[in-house]
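hiii so my PI (J.) wants the whole complex modelled not just the main chain, which honestly fair. so below is everything: two entries, each one labled with what it is. i double checked the lines twice but i was tired so who knows lol
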Amino acid sequence: MDKENKILIASSTKNLSKVRDFVSNIAVLSGIDPEIVNQITLAVDEACTNIIKYSHKYDETKFIEIKTHANRRKFAIKISYKGEGFNPNNVPTPNMIEYFKNYKRGGLGIPMIRKFITKIEYKHSNPDNNLLTLIRVL
Amino acid sequence: MEEFNIRELSNDKVKIVYLEGFLDAHTSPILENALTKLLDQKSYNIVINFKDLSYISSAGLGVFMAFIEQSRENGGDIKLCEMSKKIFNIFDMLGFPLLFEIYENETKAVEKFNS
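here's the output for the full assembly
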């Protein structure tokens, strides 16, 4: 049976450390390999950063809820937030050679999530509820 | 509360910036301000020492992308050194060694500016 834990944070980058501590503590307690714990934690940081920056536009009166579900086969993180939705699956992966040639900046959060997460699911429901699920198969 | 700190050291013609702690979307403006100041002072030869950096997210990577072009256009460079395996893997995974010189130790990175 899945074990569920959750945290609710105000949508601010100053709470990213709380998110990382929460996710990594649960992942460690679930017996996940430390390297994978780091990868999952970074992916959740990137997802929350995008929500704070693009969906909530740094409005600290908004909230993000993060739930973890762990079992022996997978570790899932469900991130719920209200506001402008954003489906990471619709974002193309940049060509890194072009990226470096043009000295681009930004846009690396989603490629990072893709490297570390097995499956990304996004669901929008009316009026403005968004649920982003990151699943790492173990 | 996780923290991020910067220390700077001036060599003859190289500025060495030591990073410590957690570099994420919240703390990256601290590094951004420090590098803006260095480039404003026309210090274009910069070595970043990652020895005491525990964590980096894409917001931190973005800071280096923001300044590398300006530094090189002025005949300088931003060279990176002393990364833990965990930090190096993040740079490497996204292909950063294609654009940045990354050295195992600070002496080698500094010497490159003198050679």
